[in-house]
């Protein structure tokens, strides 16, 4: 790692996040990092927002030289995160959500595990405070299907707080078959299958993965459509399994 390379890159996808930006969530993220001894960068990737998200993030970028802003056409969270990861130069690359449902300080639970030889560390929501009961029920069903179809041995694959060694991130994201590329879309698009494909590919390639319990607070606003997202999630699981049977994820 050269002396100009940050230790940690934080990728933050953003689509119509004006409310969360105005309540200070991104500023809290940056303020936390300013207190740390390691070097860092934050990459906000605007997903073609139709509100003032991009202009508000531009102001934050102008206040701190370690903050970058990328403006994408609207392609959904998967393509937005992938763009940020592709531009990140840190030794460790983390992606997290704009609303900071999992606070940035939880990264401190992750970092020691990279020193222990892990390639990927993922957050697992502890208690899921504030999550509506119906979402807890559907989440339980999702876990059963995920285990049956993909054999992923994790308690929680969907928390938007995941970190990778840079080399592992480059390798994993370059091999995504369903979510590796994104066309221009309309409306919000948060696909459960994106996290599933990342973790499925990581395991297929033999990367060492650690799951860590993290704080998580229901953000109050959500883009989850339980019926549609459940159908999409099942379809994505089947597509991932089919790709695997065809050998598309082989190292």
From TrEMBL:
<dbReference type="InterPro" id="IPR029044">
    <property type="entry name" value="Nucleotide-diphossugar_trans"/>
</dbReference>
<dbReference type="InterPro" id="IPR001173">
    <property type="entry name" value="Glyco_trans_2-like"/>
</dbReference>
<dbReference type="Pfam" id="PF00535">
    <property type="entry name" value="Glycos_transf_2"/>
</dbReference>
<dbReference type="GO" id="GO:0006487">
    <property type="term" value="P:protein N-linked glycosylation"/>
</dbReference>
<feature type="domain" description="Glycosyltransferase 2-like">
    <location>
        <begin position="9"/>
        <end position="173"/>
    </location>
</feature>
<protein>
    <recommendedName>
        <fullName>Glycosyltransferase 2-like domain-containing protein</fullName>
    </recommendedName>
</protein>
């Amino acid at each position: 790692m050269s002396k100009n390379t940050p230790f940690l890159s934080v990728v933050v996808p953003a689509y119509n996040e004006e409310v969360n930006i105005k309540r200070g969530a991104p500023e809290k993220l940056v303020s936390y990092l300013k207190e740390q001894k390691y070097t860092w960068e934050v990459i906000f990737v605007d997903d073609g927002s139709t509100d003032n998200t991009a202009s508000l993030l531009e102001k934050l970028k102008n206040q701190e030289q370690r903050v970058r802003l990328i403006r994408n056409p609207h392609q959904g969270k998967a393509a937005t995160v992938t763009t940020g990861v592709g531009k990140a130069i840190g030794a460790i690359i983390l992606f997290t959500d704009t609303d900071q449902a999992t606070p940035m300080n939880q990264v401190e639970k992750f970092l020691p595990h990279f020193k222990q030889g892990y390639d990927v560390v993922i957050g697992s929501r502890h208690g899921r405070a504030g999550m509506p009961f119906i979402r807890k029920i559907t989440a339980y069903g999702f876990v059963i299907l995920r285990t049956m179809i993909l054999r992923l041995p994790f308690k929680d694959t969907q928390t938007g707080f995941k970190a990778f060694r840079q080399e592992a991130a480059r390798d994993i994201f370059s091999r995504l078959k369903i979510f590796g590329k994104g066309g221009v879309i309309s409306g919000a698009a948060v696909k459960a299958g994106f996290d599933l494909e990342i973790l499925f590919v990581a395991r297929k390639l033999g990367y060492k993965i650690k799951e860590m319990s993290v704080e998580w607070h229901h953000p109050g606003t959500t883009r989850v459509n339980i019926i549609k997202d459940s159908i999409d999630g099942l379809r994505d699981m089947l597509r991932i399994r089919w790709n695997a049977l065809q050998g598309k994820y082989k190292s």
